[in-house]
Design brief:
The protein is built from 13 helices and two strands, in the order H-H-H-E-E-H-H-H-H-H-H-H-H-H-H. The protein is mainly α.
């Protein structure tokens, strides 16, 4: 019995080989991240040493030819379009996950889940093209020009919806059956069980999905660039055109030189910091007990 147990528990040579391959791949991934961050810092350093951080929020505007590097309009654009899409996608994603997991017949749930997975696989340029030819003209009928903060929010909502929905459904599926059986034994209704037992039990997974969706929204470039109008201004309404940090880099990197180029790397550095904070939050939450 002891010999059999040792054979089962002892790692084989193939397991050791796989473990070292995975360690090597993880090391390579970590080195790539460090190299990218170092590259961003080195490229942004000339203008940071010359002008300092304060010029990026105190300059009159973003006009690199005249030496103005105010990034606040792009920061507000990125923040508002991300916040709006999260506010719309979160209830839609969690609601669709609840529907699939607890209300839909198995055939309908499987079909709906497949559609959500397909939605996750559509390239961002296709979302942007669809938004440009369909969504923007519709918004333009309400208030010209149509390319706007609202169009960006709508496109990003569609793009991050699968991330939130699939993560939420995975979290719901991990809730122990004993929880549901206990609620049923107490005579609690289905909705009361979901709202008072299932959702609190899966809150860590739900929040992690929210963070992942936020990370995708704040880093999205192509679709936002195609539907938001790319006007450097702080939006005062949902119908105002905006420019995000990612779109700012994509639009100007091809011809930027000198301080202008370094300022674009400062934009990338800000995005990197935002993503790092989100990943740290997600990692902290994922390490907690999901049922705690």
């Amino acid at each position: 019995m002891t010999l059999l147990k040792n054979r089962i528990l002892s790692p084989s040579q193939s397991d050791n080989l796989l473990l070292w391959i995975l360690r090597l791949l993880a090391l390579i991934t970590g080195i790539i991240v460090v190299l990218i961050t170092t590259f961003l810092l080195l490229e942004a350093l000339p203008i940071l040493q010359q002008l300092g951080w304060q010029r990026f929020i105190s300059d009159p505007s973003w006009h690199p030819v005249q030496g103005f590097y105010n990034l606040l309009p792009m920061l507000w654009g990125s923040l508002l379009v991300t916040l709006g899409s999260i506010l719309l996608a979160t209830p839609l994603g969690i609601g669709s996950a609840i529907f699939c997991q607890y209300y839909a017949p198995p055939v309908i749930a499987r079909l709906y889940r497949t559609l959500i997975e397909l939605l996750a696989g559509i390239p961002s340029v296709v979302y942007g093209f669809w938004g440009l030819v369909v969504l923007v003209p519709l918004i333009g009928k309400l208030q010209a020009p149509g390319t706007s903060l609202l169009a960006g929010i709508a496109i990003l909502t569609l793009m991050i919806l699968p991330t939130i929905a699939l993560t939420a459904e995975a979290s719901f599926s991990e809730v122990p059956a004993e929880y549901l059986q206990g609620a049923a034994a107490l005579g609690i209704s289905r909705w009361a069980t979901i709202s008072s037992v299932v959702v609190p039990a899966a809150k860590s997974g739900l929040f992690t999905g929210l963070i992942l969706g936020t990370g995708r929204a704040i880093g999205e470039t192509m679709a936002v660039l195609m539907v938001c109008g790319n006007v450097v201004q702080t939006p005062k309404s949902l119908f105002d055109p905006i420019r995000t940090l990612t779109a700012n880099i994509a639009l100007e990197m091809a011809y930027a030189t000198g301080n202008h180029r370094s300022a674009l790397f400062v934009s990338g550095l800000l995005l990197m910091v935002a993503i790092a904070i989100l990943v740290a939050v997600a990692e902290t939450i994922s390490q907690r007990n999901i049922y705690g």
